[in-house]
Each structure stands twice: as C-alpha cells, then as structure tokens.
C-alpha cells in the first residue's frame, strides 16, 4: 500500500502548495498591474521584468515545459539551485505580464519541494520518481481543473500504468480547490456561453475548428522563427533583453498581448457583440505572436492558456461568415483545435478543455481536436528543427 499512499498524500500536499503559489502569483500580478494603467506604463513594466529575467537566465536551465516536467519527474537528479532560479524567473515572467500561463512557476516550486521530501521519505528510485510525477500532476490538475488532463499531459496518454499519477492528480485538484476557495477565489471561469447541442451546429463547427487549427500552426511557426532569430543575436542574456524589448513594443501597441489570456475571454465576447471582426482577428494574431516572443526570449511559462484565448477568438470569427453559428460552439471548436496543434497533445488538450469549460460540449471539442490532429500530421514544419537551423 506504500505507493498509493505516497501518490495520494503527496498529491494532496502538492496541490495545496500549488494553490498557495498560484494565489501569490496572481496577487503579485495585481499589484504590478493596477486597474486603469496608462499606456506608457506597459513597456516600462515589461522591460523591468525582462531585465530581471535576463539576470536570472544564466542560472537556469533553458528548455520547454515538457523538458521541465521530465526533469521534475526525477527529483533525486534535480539540479535544485537551477530549479529554484527557474521558479523565481517563471514567477517574475507571469507577474510582469508575459503572454504565458503560470505552469512553469508552479512546477518548479513543487519540484523543489518534491526533491526535499523525496530524499527523506523514499526508499527507492521508483518511489522518488513517483513523488516527482505526483507533484507535477497535482499542480497541473489544480491549475487546469482536470485530473485526467494533468495525468495525460506528459506523454498524451492515460495508460493503466498511470493509475497512481491519476490518483495524485485527483487529490491535488481537491486540495487546490479547497485552498483556493479559502482565499475567497473561485476556480478559473472562462465565461463561455452555454452550449446547446445541434447536429447542424456540429457540421458548422468544422469552420471555426479550421480557423483554430490554422492559428495553432501559425503559432508553432512563429515560435520556431523567433527562437531562430534570437539565437543569432548572441548570449542568452542578450536574447532576453532584445526579445523583451520586442514584447514591450507589441504590448504598448496592443495591450491584449499581455497575460495568459484565460481572464480575457470576455473581450472576445464584447468584440463579437460589437461585430468588431477586424479587432477580434487582431487580438488572436497578437496573442500568438506575443506568446511566441515571450517563450523565445526566455520568459518561462505555459502556452496552453494563450492558445486557448487565441483559438476561441479565431473560432468566434467564424460567426461572421456563418450568422446562425452558435458562439459557444464556435469558441469551443476553435480553442480545442488551437490547443491541440500548439501542444501537439490531442488527448490532453481535450481532457483539459472538457473540464475547464465546465460544460458537456464533447461534439465541438472532438471536432476541434480531430481537425487539430490532422493539421499536426499534415504540417511540414518541425519547430525544434527549424529553431536549430
């Protein structure tokens, strides 16, 4: 009974710890970005954040969120000093307005805690890995509100061997929710309109799904291009400073470039209500461009929430071409396709989106993910290869 007990107890503790970190990150973000800020304030704050990240970057390990999850899964071999620097850097990136989610900061903090706990209570390398995997799954489950999505995130599967990871994710989700509500905050509410099932609507959902998939493909190419471009300018510190300057300029011109996007979906609904289609298209394009620049510049975080926002905006654009298309159907199909393409994880994307949106909207979700999967297989650009060349 020892492995299930470890997964359950550490998952619960990690979920609670992740909730505390996430609450602190949001509080810091609200302090740094008060309401009704002047336009000139935006580039100053982004540049300040970029400067701090540039100072920390030589002390962190570069890599994607997937690389971070792989490292966190083996806490005995974790480079703890670099992980601590990464945690601070990721928290700064989120607080200072980067177009990224808080995943990197949460996982880094929990990885540090997993390393501290692992050396004291584990009897084998297998148990140590269980501690690491349980902590990461619990943190993501709380953030995404989806234990199965968090358990599937690392390799896009829910194989029978992941039963303990799923147990940890479920426990982490529950404690995350309890701690979050103890601070008077509810879980993420995307505010997507109520979905109503209709066979005709499902056929029409192909159009917004195609728009979301196209935006996801655009993001992967922009990310590869900005990474390759910044690599040519020299040191990692210089890359961060130059990339941060580009992000500051983009955010000054288009404030929607800031932040992860999961609290900004109301802007999509407002633009649809005003028939401001050009502004809606601009918001979607700006968000994916800002996310590509943010990550390429060494600002650490997750790309799921920005892709979700951009995909929902792209999907909503389809309602201009198909007047009878339900807005909820369009947004859900678009965000499912965009996140599937951007993450390259169809199962994880569907499982996260399904529970995060809080509605039984499997039709547009499956359509969006299916078209996203075809887009991945039909794409010819390998972002990692492009960046390397």
From TrEMBL:
Entry keyword set: Membrane, Transmembrane, Transmembrane helix
Topology within the bilayer: Multi-pass membrane protein
Organism superkingdom: Bacteria
Alphabetical list of InterPro entries matching this protein: Cl-channel_core (IPR014743), ClC (IPR001807), ClC-type_chloride_channel (IPR050368)
Localization of this protein: Membrane
Membrane spanning stretches: 38-56, 163-182, 202-220, 241-261, 276-295, 307-327, 347-376
Gene3D superfamilies, sorted: Clc chloride channel (1.10.3080.10)
Protein name: Chloride channel protein
